[in-house]
Amino acid sequence: MAVTVQPKALQNHAARDFRMLIDGAWVASDSGASLERVAPGHSVTVSRYQAGTAKDAERAIAAARRAFDEGHWPRMTGAERSNILLKAADLIAARADELAFLDAIESGKPISQAKGELGGAVDIWRYAAALARDLHGESYNTLGDGTLGVVLREAIGVVSIITPWNFPFLIVSQKLPFALAAGCTTVVKPSELTSGSTLVLGEILIEAGVPAGVVNIVTGTGPAVGAPMTTHPDVDMVSFTGSTGVGRLTMANAAQTLKKVSLELGGKNPQIVFPDADLEAFVDAAVFGAYFNAGECCNAGSRLILHRGIADDVTARIAELSKKVRVGDPLDPSTQVGAIITPQHLEKIAGYVAGAQDAGAGIALGGSQLDLGLGQFMAPTILSGVKPDMAVAREEVFGPVLSVLTFETTEEAIRIANAIDYGLSAGVWSRDFDTCLTIGRRVRAGTVWMNTFMDGASELPFGGYRQSGLGRELGRHAVEDYTETKTLNMHIGARTNWWMPR
Ligand code: NDP
């Protein structure tokens, strides 16, 4: 059984009340209603957000439209925008403990991990600031004496940004600074479960010098606030991270007015392991990949595809290490796995484990929830004997549940890896260069890790194949995603008339 860290009650902790940011002002929702967030690790209300409505979303979209069409932001120099983003990065760093605390209590993630995510987010803001100065188009001086072609990159306009609860600050940081770097204006809707750190980001951006209306933050539910952000004709682009189901709905909604859509959706990421791999390094990465963020991670390494010759030994070693993982109080600095986001989500995870058992899988470790007195927690779980057609091998469980499958030949491993609807990321473990590159080229995923797992950098694009999404975040092209190209076709000298040649 995993080591447990009993949650301590949050004493003298007053729930924090938040307003929404529309057109530079902190406002109440049109409905006057609010949403309460109960901390998943401590069973106490920690935040109250405004329950925004479609009317609030429309006000925010109108403010963003005005700021784009008439405001200074899209017309500033790249250097001016860059300096504001750099100031924002400094302010995020200065308030990192406060932001990490909010993410930890609202999402249930371990505080040490939340602090790490804040460090990563600061780096992304700085990287996007650098790109703001480098955004440029192309010129064609090769079209003959009479023509000069210039291809401009222009900010696409008003962008709706919709984010989930699993990495509240990190995911908004994978979108917003790039949209701002390009000169766009935005309406942001964080998850109704974890809105706190995004609202503090609003304070930071105003202090950094982002003009009113450029960043609007509307809290509330997906159907009430998110849906109008995907249909409104004044929105030019939607950038969404969340479930594949809502991603599909977002695309259908956006299709009505042919908005550009960028989607970062689910994953069921395989780690393919060959007998010649550094198995000690892999076992550690397997445990990290499965339980990091309690498995509530689109990148989770939830599907091990082990060579049959090593499967039993490696599974036993993973189970041994999994028992040492410290699960419990998100605010205890020693905790590695925190709480599950909601009681309903815990039920969904338990349902997948029960379904796998019914279908013939065995439980090599865990398999049930952990009663720690406060909050909701799930034991690290390993399912053995999983077959590729079982739901647990194909669908995103989004919990600390590892499925172990086996293979005999490289071709079979590739077939199993590709035989699902997702294609977000994958891992391959082997000391053989050819094996790593063969898997790297043949597995259909946006990222393939070789002898490592869930590494990343602001410079490296991230996103999925097939039903894992559309478009890429991060990397130097991320800013371009928030632009349109425009061709300036210029004529030089006398023009040949169409109806009467000179
Ligand atoms: P959702 O896809 O429902 O939520 C993501 C965001 O979309 C939230 O801000 C949500 O609002 C919003 N949203 C919901 N409905 C609509 C709508 N009709 N129009 C516009 N926006 C909407 O994910 P869940 O939080 O419900 O999680 C469900 C499953 O999704 C998880 O179990 C997991 O499998 C997967 N998931 C994947 C993530 C990833 O990183 N790829 C992240 C989170 C979840 P709100 O929730 O505030 O109502």
From TrEMBL:
EC number from the UniProt entry: 1.2.1.3
Aldehyde dehydrogenase domain: residues covered: 26-487
Keyword Signal: no
Pfam families given in the database record: Aldedh
Catalytic activity: an aldehyde + NAD(+) + H2O = a carboxylate + NADH + 2 H(+)
Top EC class of this enzyme: oxidoreductase
PROSITE patterns listed in its UniProt record: ALDEHYDE_DEHYDR_CYS (PS00070), ALDEHYDE_DEHYDR_GLU (PS00687)
CDD domains in alphabetical order: ALDH_SNDH (cd07118)
Database matches in SUPFAM superfamilies: ALDH-like
UniProt GO molecular function: aldehyde dehydrogenase (NAD+) activity; metal ion binding
Active site per UniProt: 264
Family per similarity comment: Belongs to the aldehyde dehydrogenase family.
Name of the protein this chain belongs to: aldehyde dehydrogenase (NAD(+))
